[in-house]
Amino acid sequence: MTDKTMTPEEVVGQLRSGMTVGIGGWGSRRKPMALVRALLRSEITDLTVVSYGGPDVGVLAAAGRIRRLIAPFATLDSIPLEPHFRAARESGALTLTEYDEAMFMWGLHAAANRLPFLPVRAGLGSDVMRVNPELRTVTSPYADGEELVAVPALRLDAALVHLNRADRLGNAQYLGPDPYFDDLFCEAADAAYVSCEQLVETTELSKAGPPQSLLVSRHSVTGVVESPNGAHFTSCAPDYGRDEAFQKLYAATPWPEFSARFLSGGSEHAYQSAVRTWHEEQR
Amino acid sequence: MSASSTTGTAGTATGASRAEYCVIACAEAWRDDGEVLASPMGLIPSYGARLAKRTFSPDLLLTDGEALLVGLDGETEGWLPYRRHLTMVTGGRRHVMMGASQIDRFGNQNISCIGDWARPARQLLGVRGAPVNTLNNPVSYWIPRHSPRVFVERVDMVSGVGYDRAGAAGVTRFHRLPRVVSDLGVFDFAGPDHSMRLACVHPGVTVEQVRAATGFVLAVTGEVPYTREPTAEELRLIREVIDPKGLRDREVRA
């Protein structure tokens, strides 16, 4: 069977400017940050990013890579407002398609099921309809006749997700309490790339957790990257929690300064070293 | 006892603080709710939910703030990742108390941004789940600092849907906003055309004070009562069990 292991650089080599890229996780939780950092090292830009937004959105916005963002929010969780998302919105630097959290989820479901849309009881009466004038409604064909929003499929050119364990074939496992929507992101995408804390033999997966922890299956995966601490500084339970001190630094430091110190080293390894050095300095 | 003629020094028979009245007022939001998820956003609402569960609404479900349903002592009793949480919303088995950066007289709420949405003066969280919440499960609100900047004539980006817009859009089927709790009082939508009405003020607050801090005309019917007094047992639970460190007084000072 196909060995799908790749480096972050090889993943980014499959992406192109102008693509629609879905990013898994939620807020500042289990974000595929190593893959996002690889994107930052490339020249790829003009992206449509689809995300339950966290610092993935923040760093890509700060680096000017997002043309359009489809999201219900962007937050760092313990810091409610994502500073670079906020700056990009206030300067008019990115176009936002602002959906409700449930509309967003059903858009992914529609894409994963190859449906043009799914009906949702959400959005009507709110300004989500005003700021997304392309949204249409459908009327229930049954006796109730309820009018619902027809959320269009959020089809993705590529998905980036980060899980705890994976094998070389693309089977991936979450060991924390919440799968978020990483399986849906993969199924909604033409090509899905999974980074993981640890690459293991297939036989090891069922020893690490119950069958229902095998969230992502290989038929929906194009590439697998082993990237320890690859969700840093977001959380990746149970392997590690959020690096709150570093997240504070990220939120408080002007982007050029942060980027120069942590993201200019040319590799994920250089980033992780720079983070370690910073932590040692704090002692 | 009523608040309309007092000057703000009204007695508090039990010696409860303003923050403690706020906890009581939040807890009351979940009275008689039965076996539903209490989803409090913010410190005082979460104390209120826990107080309600410990006393008059023992069947409430609570989360750990992540993906687990937990009992009062943190024991796991269920699994609630975001995908199931959203089903709990659309299934109606949840009563959320959200925050609001702006709220108007019909309960339209904004947490998305301030100013013109196309290029906001101040980007906030985004609409999050407010649109789906308000059309599917009861939604109450908690405003820790009542001011005309929050209680506004018109909100800049309708995130949570109020009564007027729910009516106009024909989405009233499961729409219900039980109450708004602020540091000054409690409000419902029993005014004309489901407009916001002052239901009670916290002891120490006058009706005039509430009016002055509200950016629209509040409905006031008759004598406005005070928020009820906590029982001795409720005060003990708040002070010794739920919030022994007194964090409530940081969210609401008085």
UniProtKB/TrEMBL annotation, chain A:
Coiled coil: none
Keywords of the record: Transferase
GO molecular function: transferase activity
Domain of life: Bacteria
One Pfam family, short name: CoA_trans
Protein name, per record: Acyl CoA--acetate/3-ketoacid CoA transferase subunit alpha
Organism in which the protein naturally occurs: Streptomyces flavotricini
UniProtKB/TrEMBL annotation, chain B:
Record-annotated membrane-spanning stretches: none
Domain of life of the source: Bacteria
Gene3D superfamilies for the chain: Glutaconate Coenzyme A-transferase (3.40.1080.10)
Listed InterPro entries: CoA_trans_fam_I, NagB/RpiA_transferase-like
Record SMART domains: CoA_trans
Short name of one Pfam family: CoA_trans
Stated family: Belongs to the 3-oxoacid CoA-transferase subunit B family.
Name of the molecule in the record: CoA-transferase
Organism: Streptomyces flavotricini
